[in-house]
Amino acid sequence: MTAVSAELLPTRVGKVQVRRGGTGSPLVYLHSAMGEGEGLALFDALAGSFALVAPVFPGFGESEGIEQIDDMEDATFHLLDVLDTLGLDAPAVVGTSLGGWMAAELATRYPDRVGRLVLVNPAGLYIQGAEIKDIFGRGPDEMAEDLFADQSQPMAVMMKAFAQMDQADVTFEMVAPQYQMLAAVARLGWDPYLHDPKLRKRLHRVTAPTLVVRGAQDTLIPAAHAETYVSEIPGARLETVEGAAHLLPIEKPAELAALVGSFCA
After folding, report:
1. Of the candidates 2, 34, 7, 28, which has an alpha carbon nearest to the alpha carbon of residue 19?
2. Is the pLDDT of residue 93 over 90?
3. Is residue 124 helix, strand or coil?
4. How far is the C-alpha of 209 from the C-alpha of 221, rounded, in Å?
5. Helices 140-147 & 154-163, crossing angle to 10 degrees?
6. Tens-digit pLDDT profile for residues 29-45
7. Mean pLDDT to the nearest integer, 177-191
8. Alpha carbon 236 to its chain's center
């Protein structure tokens, strides 16, 4: 197994945490609003075939500078700065949910900076009648139903157990990381809610070969979103993974790694 380690990278907004591992052609992974990364089996699998780079967005983990990012445009320029600092010209970019939205913004604004594009259950679009469910006002037990197809998955079990705890036993230290992440996501996707009204009409600008991957049981972002990305990005194709919901990288890491490996090799 290839080791994945973390380091702090100086950027214009402050130090940001970056997980790296493996050798080969560069592949950048952009995480979702859940901030997945620590101990993620997907990273170990990808680092076996690629030089994996997984920056942690400001406001998540140990990354600084969220106060300097007001919207997705700022986030896109921050991502561009990270790529420049790491000397990555046109890596393959894989993004999940919020990270998929960020990857799509990068690929529309700077198509020459993305070698290949993989969007996993991507946010970023508004489709009337197929709106993205709320992530800010619902409890962890409700969210678990949308995030995981298998409700016995350890994280789903933990989320439901947390919801059943006596609130008197919930300490600030227990909830602070989650509030910190939601505050960071809110800076990008509070209003408009998790989308860029201009993104859809810009998707034709994407020149990177594009794969859209959807968890078949994802009930947080309806299927129409993945289908729209595929229809609007020239040459894009769709793969559906059974037995996975929104957090596909956690539920089906081997299946996703195989799809990414085959597409980006």
Report:
1. 7
2. yes
3. strand
4. 23
5. 160
6. 999 999 998 889 999 99
7. 89
8. 19
Helix (H, G, I), strand (E, B) or coil at 28: strand
Interatomic CA distance for residues 133 and 227, integer angstroms:
17
Residue type, 44: D
**pLDDT band at residue 113 using 50, 70 and 90 as cut-offs:** very high
Q: Where are the alpha helices (DSSP H) in the chain?
A: 41-47, 72-85, 98-109, 140-147, 154-163, 172-189, 199-202, 223-232, 248-251, 253-264
Amino acid at 163: A
Beta strand 14-21 with 5-11: parallel, antiparallel or unpaired?
A: antiparallel
What is the structure's pLDDT at 1? 65
- Can the peptide bond before residue 26 be classed as cis, meaning omega within 30 degrees of 0? no
* Residue 1 neighbours by CB distance under 10 Å: 9
Contact 33, 98 (CB under 8 A): yes
Query: Are 104 and 128 in contact, with CB atoms under 8 Å apart?
Result: no
What is the residue whose two structure tokens read 């597409």? 263
Structure pTM?
0.95
Share of the chain above pLDDT 90, in %: 86
Task: Round the CA-based radius of gyration of the chain to a whole number and report it.
Answer: 17
pLDDT band at 98 (very low <50, low <70, confident <90, very high): very high
User: 117 and 208 in contact (C-beta within 8 Å)?
Assistant: yes
